[in-house]
Amino acid sequence: MKILIYAAGAVGLGIGSCLIKAGADVSIVARKETVRWLKKEGLIRDGIFGEYRAKPNSFRAFSSLKELSSRYRYILVCCKSFDTRQCAKDLSEKKDILEDNSAIVLFQNGWGNAEIFSDFFEKDLIYNARVITGFERKKPNHVSITVHADSIHIGSLFGGDLSKIEPLCKLISAGGIPCSVSSSIEKDLWAKMLYNCLLNPLSAILKVPYGRLAQDNNTKSIMNNIAREIFLVMKAAGYKTYWESAEQYLEVFYRELIPKTADHRSSMLQDIEKGKRTEIESLNGAVIRIAEEKGISVPYNTAVYSMVKFLEEGVSPQKEEIPS
Known about the structure:
Rossmann fold; N-(1-d-carboxylethyl)-l-norvaline Dehydrogenase, domain 2; eight-stranded mixed beta sheet; four-stranded mixed beta sheet; about 45% helix
């Protein structure tokens, strides 16, 4: 079974390490610097799921889609959400790498990525992964898994055949990170949206890990109101998650989710520190866009969105993770 990981940053390398460990035939497409390190030292993973080192000859690494000649059962898309359209376009121009029964799985943050991919691919090819696991890059080829709140869930927003992705879930689980098929991926993704929209912007703005945000009544008040706005937006747009109200979600958020990930520094904070663009557009930005369509005011989401955009000023709008 051949699997391609496209635009492999921290998440892609972390998932790739599981697949290689489980015995899959893995190809990684990443930036040239990442590929150079992978070919020199292999892929290194450490953290809460233990240490693993994949030797350079145990997988393939490429710096461009143009170098690929194989066909793949699964294509795992791991680019940042602001690069989704370009990533989908590039893959659509290389459709000869798809098998007849292929699946494209989006390992991305935010809302709207699957809809963008549906402009380029048949909907029954497209699946989403919900990941609540923290990955950090120590070196271009070295990823550390810092926190884990729940198993990875993979499913289809378009009614796709879930049996197609069962083998992928089994491989990821066998490689060290629990992963399962989900028949409720919309609920999963909006649960992740809530989690990210409450935590990531404030973590980036205030430069603190998640747990610190739950220790102060001022930041808790902001997160509570962000959650209430998102529930209003979901209701107006017809989306669902696992809780009927913001209050129900917040009880679980503070009691269960925050303690499991208290020490994590958000990917948005890591991007700001590295002078990179963030994924704010597909998180609170997506909430704002849906709210505008429905005529709903979301001042708390707008405030944190605006502050993150301020921190992004001067960052190049060029592609960050997609290999040229």
